[in-house]
Write a structure and sequence with these properties.
Helix 6 links the parallel strand 5 and strand 6. With 389 residues, this protein is of the alpha/beta class. The chain is elongated, with a radius of gyration of 24 Å. It is 28% helix and 25% strand. The strands form three sheets. Strands 1, 11, 12, 15, 16, 17, 18, 19, 20 and 21 form a ten-stranded mixed β-sheet that branches. Strands 2, 3, 4, 5, 6, 7, 8, 9 and 10 form a nine-stranded parallel β-sheet that branches. It has eleven helices and 21 strands.
Length: 389
């Protein structure tokens, strides 16, 4: 039997707690979408999807079609919105599995409608609008006084809504800086999206579900909740940034990342550690090997930059992180031996290394820390009902 060397322990109760607390911030009948793209931000899409639905989420969101297919194959029948591009050749899959596609503009919508016509059944869709994110979506002019540009956008949406084999159920936008302390730009995006929706209603174009709020929007912008919110990083117990108001909602991190000590050796002063001879010991010490590296999603940028927890103490990472191994200096930690637990992210004893600390170390965000974990990191699930883990 395989013995897992690196394990991500996922607390499903924590995910349930986070969903319920976030839902308290959303006034009915506003719906709650849980985003489980990128393998549930590294936590495992299928177990997370089941937990969030059991905890009150009404819908799921994914980035790519194959992620939605995997959820259906696992027996999950909730409404699923695919955020990313879907090719017209994949329309039959969308229809057969009752999935909802995102369209970015009239041209994409028209291609999908034509493909759906060949299937003899309309495809469900939400239209994405670009109010300031600058990636994809139908561009909405920021200057609402520019009637010509606004009329052009409204006509394009009207054309999209009247395509024969496209059932346009929703319209949405995405915030660029909702997690920033300065709220000016996000308020502009909210005003622009609200004005667009109002204009569509005035022109007799009613779209059932309007949505804009991501995790930061849920926390800091209640006026952005509209008909549905989309919770991503927050359901996993991580805040979108240091600049959102964390006092508004208590979140519990769901993941603890662990490994083990696979070897301990005494080395002299002047000993070179790992590839490139980038670390030289300043005194005689003990090194412990940990079988986790960048092939597990533990970034090479942690080379001589960070710590792991062993026996309740911080052990500095020394030398370059390898594909399969990382070395830590345990010279100041007594009694470290083969098989001892190593906590890479989480708590041990009285100390904690969280995703935010790891992210700050290497100049990234907590999203990347958890979602970068590769499939060879075994996910282990626990909850109070099963007692597993």
């Amino acid at each position: 039997m395989d013995y897992p060397l690196v394990t991500a322990h996922i607390d499903l109760d924590a995910i349930g707690h986070n969903v319920r607390n976030l839902k308290l911030m959303v006034k009915p009948p506003c719906e709650f979408m849980a985003v489980v793209k990128a393998n549930g931000y590294g936590h495992g899409a299928v177990p997370v999807a089941r937990q969030v639905l059991a905890s009150g989420a009404e819908r799921l969101g994914v980035a790519r079609l194959h992620e939605a297919v995997a959820l259906r194959q696992a027996g999950i029948d909730a409404s699923i919105l695919v955020f990313g591009y879907v090719h017209p050749s994949q329309v039959e899959t969308l229809i057969d599995l009752d999935l909802t596609v995102t369209v970015f503009d009239f041209e994409m919508a028209d291609h999908l409608s034509r493909a759906a016509k060949k299937c003899g059944q309309p495809v469900k869709a939400h239209l994405k609008t670009d109010t300031g994110m600058g990636r994809v979506g139908m561009i909405i002019p920021r200057d609402l006084s520019d009637k010509t540009a606004l009329d052009r956008a409204v006509r394009a949406i009207e054309k999209t809504a009247t395509l024969a084999f496209l059932d346009l159920e929703g319209i949405y936008t995405h915030f660029a800086v909702a997690d920033a302390r300065d709220k000016t730009y996000t308020n502009m995006q909210i005003d622009l999206f609200s004005s667009l929706v109002d204009r569509l209603e005035t022109d007799g174009i009613h779209i059932k579900t309007c949505h804009a709020a991501n995790s930061a929007g849920i926390i800091d912008f209640p006026e952005s909740h509209f008909d549905m919110v989309r919770a991503g990083i927050s359901i996993y117990g991580l805040y979108p940034s240091e600049e959102v108001d964390r006092k508004k909602v208590r979140l519990i991190p769901a993941m603890t990342l662990k490994s083990i000590v696979t070897g301990v050796r005494n080395v002299p002063k002047g000993f070179y550690v790992s590839y490139g001879m980038t670390h030289e010991t300043e005194k005689a010490t003990r090194l412990a090997s940990v079988p986790m590296g960048y092939a597990d999603g533990f970034s090479r940028r942690f080379s001589s930059n960070g710590h792991m927890l062993v026996n309740g103490h911080r052990a500095p990472i020394v030398g370059r992180v390898c594909m399969d191994q990382t070395l830590i200096d345990v010279g100041n930690i007594p009694h470290v031996k083969l098989g001892d637990e190593v906590v890479v992210m989480g708590s041990q004893g009285n100390d904690v290394i969280d995703a935010d600390e790891l992210a700050e170390r290497i100049g990234t965000i907590n999203y990347e820390i958890v979602s970068a974990l590769t499939p060879r990191v075994e996910r282990i699930y626990s909850d109070s009902a099963s007692g597993s883990g």
